[in-house]
Amino acid sequence: MSTAYSHTYFLDGKLDVTGTTAVAPVLYIEPDGRHHGPHVAFHIDSKLTEEERADVAERFAEGVASWAAELRANADKQRTTADELAAAKAEIERLRAEQGGAA
Q1: DSSP characters for 62-95?
Q2: H or E element: which one contains 59?
Q3: What is residue 39's predicted lDDT score, i.e. its pLDDT?
Q4: CA 25 to CA 22: how far, in whole Å?
Q5: In what helix (H) or strand (E) does residue 24 lie, and over which residues does it extend?
Q6: pLDDT in tens, the chain (103 residues)
Q7: C-alpha to C-alpha distance for 22 and 14, rounded to whole angstroms
Q8: Helices (H), strands (E): how many in the chain?
């Protein structure tokens, strides 16, 4: 199934993601938290076998996991850069102190 439109939601810490397999498999993404506004629902075709349904869910999960890993790597790089900058500043202050506070 394909659609000719897209939606953009800006996500923050209130995001809620839930899934159910009752009746038909559905993944709900609620950008504003559970039961607080719009949501996106991904339904898996009922004509698929249970194995095929699991494959669809795993492809979705792999994409999200890859995205999360890239975001985590970016956060780690930023933290490393900030740590290196803080260490350099501390070293400058230490050297200044050794020289009696001279600039």
Answers
A1: HHHHHHHHHHHHHHHHHHHHHHHHHHHHHHHHHH
A2: helix 50-98
A3: 85
A4: 7
A5: none
A6: 666 678 787 888 888 899 998 888 999 988 888 777 788 899 999 899 999 999 999 999 999 999 999 999 998 888 888 888 999 999 999 999 999 865 5
A7: 25
A8: 1, 3
Integer angstrom CA distances of residue 100 from 12, 71, 89, 96: 48, 43, 16, 6
- Listed residue (1, 19, 2, 5) closest to 57, CA to CA: 19
CB-neighbour burial class of residue 53 (10 A; exposed 0-12, middle 13-18, buried 19+): middle
Tokens of 47: 């004509």
